[in-house]
Amino acid sequence: MREFKEFHNDDNGAWLEVFCYQLAPGEVEELIFLLNGARFTFQNIQEDALLARVEGDYQEIWNIMENLKEKGFSWSELQ
């Protein structure tokens, strides 16, 4: 699962946090490469899961979020 965990925007900028879990073998490495390219900072990496965050201005973070939607990321149904 590739999920957007949290998006925040205020006068100091914006940030986006993603949580990926139940990942197949090799998918963690694929996501590390993908998210590194978008300047994410990894907060936790496990064998089948990861948590990462990126900060910037609103438009930059919005563009990153739109690009990640094309890569299978979505908001959790529990939101």
The whole-number mean of residue pLDDT values reads 95
Treating each run of at least 4 consecutive H or I residues as one helix, how many helices?
Answer: 2
Radius of gyration: 12 Å
Shape: globular
Order of secondary-structure elements: EEHEEHE
| Low confidence ranges | none
Instruction: Tell me the total number of β-strands.
Output: 5
Describe the biggest sheet?
5 strands, mixed
Fraction of residues in H or I helices: 25-40%
Which structural class fits the helix and strand makeup? alpha+beta
Strand numbers in spatial order across the main sheet: 3-4-2-1-5
Strand content: 35-45%
Distance between the termini: 15 Å
Describe this structure in words.
The chain is built from 2 helices and 5 strands, in the order E-E-H-E-E-H-E. It has 79 residues and is of the alpha+beta class. It is globular. Helices cover 29% and strands 39% of the residues. The chain has helices at 27-37, 58-69; strands at residues 2-10, 13-20, 41-45, 50-56, 74-75.
Summarize the structure.
The protein has 79 residues and is of the alpha+beta class.
Keywords:
alpha+beta; 5 strands; single chain; five-stranded mixed beta sheet
Sequence-ordered SSE layout with sheet pairings:
Blueprint: E1 2-10, E2 13-20, H1 27-37, E3 41-45, E4 50-56, H2 58-69, E5 74-75
Parallel strand pairs: 1-5
Antiparallel strand pairs: 1-2, 2-4, 3-4
